[in-house]
Design goal:
The structure is a homodimer. With about 150 residues, chain A is of the alpha/beta class. Chain A contains 4 helices and 8 strands; from the N terminus they run βαβαβββαβββα. Chain A has helices at about 10-20, 35-45, 95-105, 140-145; strands at about 5, 30, 50-60, 65-75, 80-90, 110-120, 130-135, 135-140. A 6-stranded mixed β-sheet of chain A has the order 4-3-2-5-6-7, sandwiched between helices. A two-stranded parallel ribbon of chain A has the order 1-8. In chain A, helix 2 (about 35-45) links the parallel strand 2 (about 30) and strand 3 (about 50-60). Chain A is globular, with a radius of gyration of 15 Å. The interface of A and B includes residues 8 and 16 of A.
């Protein structure tokens, strides 16, 4: 599959586009680890939100995908009313759908919205806001800039 | 105070130096939010560790520092034996000291080590591994690249 090397500069351009789209006031951000962590951090800086949490799932096994997604670690977001959940890419949508289901069960009073850099049209759930459709395999800068042989 | 604009390229150079120093096998990473999140993400990529968690504290009020540090959200790390805690900068050391105290109380069987990009000699606790001594005010790329007016 053709690879798209997604650089830090491309990320910066996209994240500025993403914040133009997000018409939602929120008081906490949850980044789905690992891919959503840098995005969550940068959005926290932009919105000056200190409640930037991580949520850990298992389900991907590198390129091969397992049929199910399990949420391993949920953040405590008891005092948050409106929460933005972020991911680098919404691929099948399995992860995001499971994360939303579990968060809504645990925090029925909280309003959750979702954002990602990339999405696939074929995903079973599309994020509320996204920047680019993914029609290639996305190689992110946090992966290729950290290769051991560089 | 003089500012050091710490770019993404400088970060990449430093993180590759940091991993050269870290002589510790670990199975989970905790990034202290917000500043440690991007570092935690990149280290997770490098070591291919999926258990990348966030830990949230309060204590800094922008440049002014409050006298105490409170840990707001602790990750569940029940199955981790060896954990690397990361921060962007160890300044007074108050945050890192409090985080270590609380984690060791909750997980007495777990081995914790600490790493940061920057440290201050005057900190009450120095990380096990760090790259640069901070003798200026560090302005990180995740802050200045996300300024609303850029």
């Amino acid at each position: 599959m053709e690879k798209y090397f997604y650089t830090y500069d491309a990320f910066l351009k996209d994240i500025h586009q993403l914040v133009e789209k997000i018409d939602f006031q929120f008081d906490a951000i949850i980044g789905i680890a690992r891919g959503g962590l840098t995005l969550a951090h940068f959005l926290g800086e932009y919105y000056n939100i200190r409640k930037v949490y991580a949520l850990n799932t298992i389900g991907y096994n590198d390129i091969q995908k397992l049929p199910s997604v399990e949420v391993l670690s949920l953040p405590e977001i008891t005092n948050a009313k409106d929460v933005l959940i972020v991911e680098d890419i919404v691929d099948s949508g399995d992860t995001l759908a499971e994360v939303l289901k579990i968060l809504k069960e645990k925090y029925p009073e909280t309003n959750f919205k979702t954002a990602s850099l990339f999405y696939k049209k074929s995903a079973r759930i599309v994020p509320d806001w996204a920047v680019q459709e993914a029609d290639k395999w996305i190689e992110f800068f946090w992966t290729f800039d950290m290769k051991r042989d560089t």
